[in-house]
Each structure stands twice: as structure tokens, then as C-alpha cells.
Amino acid sequence: MTQFRSILFALGCSVLPGVALVAQAGADAASRAVVATERAQDGRAIGRRTVAVLPFVVTSPDTTLDVLGYGFAEFLSDDLAHSHRLVMVERFRLADLQRESDLSLTASVDPETRVRAGRLLAAQHMIFGTIDAQEAGALSIDERSVNVDTGNEEMHRTSSASLDAIFRAERDLAMDTFSMFGITLTPDEKRALYERVAPAFRAFVAFSHGVRAEQQGDDATAIASFRDAAVLDKTFKLASSKLAAAQQRISTRAATAFTAASASKDDAASKATPKDPHASAPSLASGAAPSGTLSAPSTAAAGAASSKGSTKGADPSPARKKTAQTTHKLVKSSAP
């Protein structure tokens, strides 16, 4: 009995570590699953916010500055996109919505329209504002953010800057927006945000024209304007990227339209010439010639009949004689 207990003890010592290792591995896997689930839930709790930035409305005695509200909004949208916690609504989606719903998507629209547009765009937040440009070059910038779900205003910020400092004012506005959302940028995100060089003002004006054309669905004008901006300032990376995106969008739409047109043409052709389900192909084994082909004997008979018929009536014309002679020669040469 004592010996039996010793054997059991030895077996336990050798087996239990393996069991423990298996149990530990299972516990580790379960822990990893719990952590992964917790992270996923935490991510959903924090959420990736979907944000749409409407063009800012510019009021100025200089009407050439009116278009700057579009470029300013695009710069703000691009800066906010540096955070992995935000998803920005693309400008061409605003164009699609304007075309399909006949909505005017600028900061001047009424609150109900803004909320409706935000829901149609699946955006959780709508950012909009105004820029008051005075003759002396002083700017007064007003930014607001609305929660689309509740319709409540969640941020209202005003700032002042000179026209020369409009890009620094826009970046400060972006940082304040991050703070409003409770977002802290990573060092890499912040570095990328501040790496952008302010473009030449003429290039920014051309760029703003491109953004406005893009939102209005005029891709040809948008491409031309983005190209002008990229030429006026070789370091204007956002203009170059917008140009490439617009060109790609045009190519994709053209390819889609061509494919649809080809499919429609093929479908129309197949409907125009329906096949007779009762028709059957002639059997070559029965000696019948395929459709559209004359066998040598039948060709000879046709030639003979043609030649015989021509002697009964009026004298055939030289052209018809020549045709009959040629046919007769071909028949003779093809006959066995």
C-alpha cells in the first residue's frame, strides 16, 4: 500500500506541472481575450467621432476674399484628420448631398438644416463659422460646433488675427477643437500637424476656388484650380493631394460609366436579336450544307439555270454575261 502511494505521488509530481502549464496557457489566452475585449469596448466608449466641417462664411468689402471660407474649412478639416480619434467627412460627399437633396451646406444655413445634413452625412458633429475680414486686414473668426444627435451647440469660440496670420489662427482653432473633444494628440500626430508650411496667399486663393468647385460638384474647375495652386506654390502638399484625389475620382467615374454603357449596349443587342428556341442547326451527316453555304452541285445547278434562263429572254448585258461566265468557271473548277 505504501509503495502504491509512492507511485501515485511520483506520477502526480510528473503530471501536475504539465497540467499547470496547460492551465496557465489557457489563463493567459483568456486574459488576452479579456484585455482585447476591454480595449475594443473602451474604443467604442471613447468612439471615433465623425466630423463634418462646413465652409465658413466670409463677410468682407473685398469680394475676392469670399472664397477663402472654403479653403479655411478644408485646412481645418485636414488638421483635425491628424487625430486617429476623428473621421472627417470628405468634401465631395458634401457635393453629393447638395446635389441629391438640394441643401445649401454653408455656415449660413439654419440650425435645423445643419442637423439634418449632419444626419444624412452620418456625422456626429458639424463645425461651421464665419470670418469677418475688415479693410485693414484684421480678421474676426467665429467657430461653432453642434452635436448632431442632440442639436445642441457644444462649442463657441471667437478669435482675432491678421490676414497674414490666418493659417496660425486656423491651427489654434484646430487645437481648441481637439481640447473640446477631449483629445490629446500623440507626439507623432502633433509633429505632423505642425510640419505643414503655410502656402503662398495667391496659391491659397486658387486652392479655395478648387474646394468650392469640388463641393459644388464641378470637378473640372476643381482640378484646374488645384493644379494652379500647386504650380503657384511647389511646397503646397495639400493642393497636390487634392488634385490627385480629384483626378482619381474623375477616372473612376469615367470607368464606371463606360462599363455601365457597355453592359447596357450588350443587353440591348441581345434583346434585339432573340434566338428561336425551336430552330435547329442542319445536320452535316444528312448531307445538308450549313446555312449560308452552297454545295458544288447546287452551285452548278444555279449557274446552269442562270445560263439557261438568260438565253430565253433578251440578250443579257455584257456585265451579266461576264458574271455568268465567271460563275461557270468557278463551278467547273470546284466540281469533282
Q: Which descriptors apply to this entry?
A:
336 residues; alpha/beta; Rossmann fold; six-stranded mixed beta sheet; 60% helix; disordered C terminus
* Biggest sheet descriptor: 6 strands, mixed
Q: Output the CATH topology of the domain at 49-196.
A: Rossmann fold
Q: What are the segments in which pLDDT stays under 50 over at least 5 consecutive residues?
A: 15-28, 30-45, 283-314, 330-336
Number of helices: 11
Tell me the quaternary state. single chain
What's the overall average pLDDT, rounded?
A: 76
User: For the record, what is the CATH homologous superfamily label of the domain at 49-196?
Assistant: TolB, N-terminal domain
Structure in words:
The chain has 336 residues and is of the alpha/beta class. Among the domains are: 49-196, 3-Layer(aba) Sandwich (Rossmann fold); 200-258, no CATH class. It contains eleven helices and six strands. It has helices at 2-46, 68-80, 91-101, 111-120, 166-180, 187-195, 201-215, 219-232, 237-272, 296-312, 318-334; strands at residues 49-53, 57-59, 86-88, 125-133, 138-147, 153-162. Strands 1, 2, 3, 4, 5 and 6 form a six-stranded mixed beta sheet that branches. Strand 4 and strand 5 form a beta hairpin. The longest helix is centred in the first third of the chain and has 45 residues, at 2-46. The model is unreliable at 15-28, 30-45, 283-314 and 330-336 (pLDDT under 50).
